[in-house]
Write a structure and sequence with these properties.
There is one protein chain. The protein has eleven helices and twelve strands. By secondary structure, it is of the alpha/beta class. The protein has a five-stranded mixed β-sheet with strand order 4-3-5-12-6, with helices on both faces. Strand 8, helix 8 and strand 9 form a beta-alpha-beta unit. The C terminus is likely disordered.
């Protein structure tokens, strides 16, 4: 079963053999024996890699967490012996999550478990998902709209979309701002590759309201500063607004036009969390992924 899972993971007999310290013929014999025992074809050769048959996909989804659990048994055992005074937790997160949501959690975790090493990967959504699938991180913390079938997402916080204006803006005194009111003014938005830009564009297009992007720049703090300087207006997620921002900007809720953004924990299905990683997740929300919870179908925000 280990040979089968490693061939699926690495795609070739040679690379699977290297990972298991076995020869290529040995891996091939083990696969043949497994297929013979189960009476089904599990893999098809599609050069240069193997691909799963329907039966192979079913077996892989069942076998992967079991094999990974056995392979990680030594580490899990040592972690249990050491308790929470050693080891590491590796988390993938975007800039907004790292800046606005993680600081109190990191502080609480460091206070409770000072011997555990924390590593935070500051990545965009796609890069974070790649790290999850490659098992280079324990879990990801951030926002998702569509959840792939091989991942599970549990949202824990929700934030409204907010319009921000400089205090001397012509719309500053208007309480009930309509989407059409924004057309004459240049927007300051994050880069097009990011979700916020795509959502703004989608809403304006669906309602057939013209709009103009004046400045495209990354980082909520930069966007807020540019708006405060009078260089444009913006639509941001409420996660980034502080008391200081309320004193220098005009803020209006736009939830009647744009959807809320949720932020939560993303895990690969079948992933076994270390004791240390489980402790961090429990700080976010106790029992967030119950037993078997991360094997269930992923949730979707749509």
């Amino acid at each position: 079963m280990r040979a089968f899972c490693h061939v699926v993971k690495f795609g070739t007999l040679a690379r699977a053999g290297e990972a298991l310290f076995l020869s290529q013929p040995s891996i091939s014999l083990q696969l043949s024996a497994l297929e013979k025992e189960l009476g089904v074809r599990l893999l098809e050769r599609a050069r240069p890699r193997f691909v799963l048959t329907r039966e192979g996909q079913m077996l892989y989804e069942l076998a992967r967490p079991l094999v990974e659990g056995l392979e990680g048994l030594d580490q899990q055992f040592r972690s249990q012996l050491q308790g929470l005074d050693a080891g590491e937790v590796i988390i993938a997160a975007g800039s907004s999550t790292i800046q606005y949501l993680l600081p109190p959690l990191v502080r609480a975790f460091r206070d409770e478990h000072p011997g555990v090493r924390l590593q935070l990967y500051n990545v965009t959504g796609k890069d974070g998902l790649a790290l999850l699938r490659q098992d280079q991180v324990d879990f990801a913390f951030g926002s998702m709209l569509d959840v792939p079938h091989d991942l599970s997402y549990e949202p824990v916080q929700w934030f409204d979309p907010m319009l921000i204006l400089p205090r001397d803006h012509p719309l500053a005194d208007k309480v009930d701002i309509q989407l059409e009111d924004l057309s004459p003014y240049g927007l300051i938005l994050p880069p097009q590759r990011l979700t916020t830009y795509r959502l703004v564009d989608l809403v304006f297009q669906q309602r057939r309201v013209p709009y103009r992007v004046a400045i495209e720049v990354g980082g909520w703090e930069v966007i807020k500063e540019y708006v405060a300087m009078g260089l444009g207006i913006s639509i941001v997620t409420g996660i980034c607004l502080t008391e200081h921002d309320q004193s220098r900007l005009i803020v209006r809720n736009l939830k009647q036009y744009f959807p809320q953004r949720s932020y939560g924990v993303v895990m690969r299905k079948g992933k076994y969390l270390s004791t240390q990683a489980r402790a961090f997740v429990d700080l976010i929300r106790p029992g967030l992924f119950g037993r078997g919870g991360y094997d269930e179908a992923g949730h979707s925000e749509r």
